[in-house]
Design goal:
Family: Belongs to the phosphohexose mutase family.
Number of domains: 4
Largest sheet: 7 strands, mixed
Structural class: alpha/beta
Keywords: Isomerase, Magnesium, Metal-binding, Phosphoprotein
Number of strands: 24
Strand content: 15-25%
Pfam families: PGM_PMM_I, PGM_PMM_II, PGM_PMM_III, PGM_PMM_IV
Distance between the termini: 27 Å
Protein name: Phospho-sugar mutase
CATH class of the largest domain: Alpha Beta
GO molecular function: isomerase activity
Length: 573
């Protein structure tokens, strides 16, 4: 979701100081104003370190992209702060008014428990109302999926969610959704560029001059209640709902209040709660990085699970739009193994296909979708059930728009299980679907581990790995991508390359994206792309086998992935 900063070139010192003083004059936040004033004084005193810091804040600005804005909270246009948010809100308001087709455009605004989320949300509500847009503020900090739900439930023109999801503690962000024919999905190109142009127009003046109004609405509690009812209904099987025990963590985020109500409504067992992480805390004190994918982030969850002896661990990230699942594993030091996003996506996709088949009397309709860097396993499910399948670019702004969608996911722990109500990834509804599946299996004496084996026996064993190359100089990422394009590999390890698809200019209906897809002669696949949120080059490796028994399939697929990973590390060193 993080947009790369726009480049305008380095400012000379007088211009830099002038820009900083102009920013100070319009900044309503005493904390960031003091921080910037101290920097200016230090630069004037000759500090090279302060000068470099000021350049990093003012030579560029956070660009408004297809998923909005995200960055560290600090002063300056290349950081998240009240000035930048005011510019974004006013620019988006102008776009909404420009595209209103009769009547007054409307927007619903949500926020999570991060630092300044409530402040940024109220600023947005006041500025939208001041510009003539009907603004509706959610009544309290709530999960991102509730905001995505509210866009459709309230039938508004757009939605704004103030969140940085699972980013470091000092980050915050701004996600934008559209209603109407977009059905509550996140914005895509060219809408992002149109809004960005309006934001830059606003930035030519002072946000202190923008009209504000406190005549915005506060949404009633029944918006969250409607979400709870719709999400609990995702548990649709007739099996007993309380056969499976589980631990739950909100990762210091906003998920627990809403998730608890959904679990109770669905009839699930009361979870063993990770108490230390249950309440929102913008400092995220018990985790180094509030992302369930990061090493150590689920240690407290595993400790709680071991003490309670539960069957599953369910974790949401801080804004509850992602889901992590762990199952018992005696071979692990923690006693539990976190399933990969691809494993959870395959199981939930299989569940969706089965439910669609039952509902249609054996002839399922609709489509399964996943991002191009996610496992090919979902395509195998779609083929077996004669469902349509869509490969999309990374991001739920694309996954959610697949025609006829009944289920979609991406490997980074994002799942869309109820597209009729939420057109975005939703960690709470995904948890509900997964717990429903686990309880249905338990009713017949089976576990999630058994289901994974059944998947491999029916569709083949799919193995995946991911390499992240973190850089300090962003130009290194461009150099690696350019090198791969200029001298593409003819083989990786001992396997010949069959085809390389370059998505830079678009490919087979996919919009342009800086992605290389390398297909190997044995059916394996390697995807290479720059991260959209961090200074990393990301490499995704997938292989599968449907030959031999389960052990042989696992051995073959994992060996292929390991060999490809070694080859890619050597190639990009």
């Amino acid at each position: 979701m993080n947009a790369a900063p726009e480049t305008s070139g380095p400012l000379d010192t007088p211009a830099l100081l002038e820009a900083a003083r102009a920013w100070l004059a319009q900044d309503p936040d005493p904390e960031t104003r003091q921080e910037l004033d101290d920097l200016v004084v230090a630069v004037e005193a000759g500090s090279a370190e302060a000068l470099a810091d000021l350049h990093s804040r003012f030579d560029t600005r956070l660009a408004f992209g297809t998923a909005g804005l995200r960055g560290a909270i600090a002063a300056g246009p290349n950081r998240m702060n009240r000035v930048l948010v005011a510019q974004a809100a006013a620019g988006f308001a102008r776009w909404l008014l420009e595209h209103a087709e009769g009547g007054t455009p409307s927007v619903v605004i949500g926020y999570d428990g991060r630092k300044n989320s409530d402040v940024f949300a109220r600023d947005t509500a006041e500025l939208m109302a001041g510009a003539g847009v009907r603004a509706v503020l959610l009544p309290r900090l709530l999960p991102t999926p509730v905001l995505a739900f509210a866009v459709r439930h309230l039938d508004v023109s757009a939605g704004v969610m103030v969140t940085a999801s699972h980013n470091p503690p000092n980050d915050n962000g701004y996600k934008v959704y559209l209603g109407g024919e977009d059905h509550g999905s996140q914005i895509v190109s060219p809408t992002d560029a149109e809004i960005a142009a309006h934001i830059l127009e606003v930035a030519q003046g002072s946000v202190a001059d923008l009209p504000r109004s406190e005549r915005y609405e506060v949404a009633p509690d029944d918006v969250e209640e409607a979400y709870i009812a719709a999400t609990a209904a995702v548990a649709s099987t007739d099996a007993p709902r309380d056969a499976v025990s589980f631990a739950y963590t909100a990762m210091h985020g906003v998920g627990w209040r809403t998730a608890r109500a959904v679990f109770e409504r669905a009839g699930f067992a009361t979870p063993a709660l990770v108490e230390a992480q249950a309440d929102p805390d913008p400092a995220f004190p018990t985790v180094a990085f509030p992302n369930p994918e990061e090493p150590g982030a689920m240690d407290l969850s595993f400790a709680t699970a071991r003490e309670a002896g539960v069957d599953l661990v369910i974790a949401n990230d801080p804004d509850a739009d992602r889901l992590a699942v762990a199952i018992p594993d005696p071979s692990s030091d923690s006693g539990y193994r976190r399933l990969s996003g691809n494993e959870v996506g395959a199981l939930l996709g299989w569940r969706a296909a089965e439910l669609a088949s039952r509902a249609a009397g054996g002839a399922a309709f609709g489509s399964l979708a996943c991002s191009i860097v996610s496992s090919p396993a979902l395509a195998a499910v779609a083929d077996a059930y004669r469902l349509d399948f869509a490969d999309t670019l990374t991001g739920f702004k694309w996954v959610s728009r697949a025609p006829g969608l009944i289920f979609g996911y991406e490997e980074a722990l994002g799942y869309l299980v109820n597209p009729d109500t939420v057109r975005d990834k939703d960690g709470i509804s995904a948890a509900t679907a997964f717990l429903d599946l686990a309880n249905e299996l338990a009713a017949s004496g089976r576990s999630i581990g058994d289901r994974l084996n059944e998947f491999a026996e029916r569709f083949g064993f799919f193995a995946s790995d991911q390499i992240s190359i973190r850089v300090t100089d962003l130009s290194r990422i461009g150099e690696i991508m350019a090198s791969l394009r200029a001298t593409p590999p003819s083989s990786l390890g001992e396997v010949r390359v069959a085809q390389i698809d370059d998505l830079r200019d678009g490919f087979e209906g996919l919009p342009p994206s800086d992605v290389l897809r390398i297909r190997l002669e044995d059916g394996s696949r390697v995807m290479v792309r720059p991260s959209g949120t961090e200074p990393k080059l990301k490499i995704y490796i997938d292989a599968s086998s449907d030959q031999g028994d389960l052990a042989q399939r696992r051995e073959t697929a994992t060996a292929r992935v390991a060999a490809l990973a070694a080859a890619m590390r050597e190639l990009t060193a």
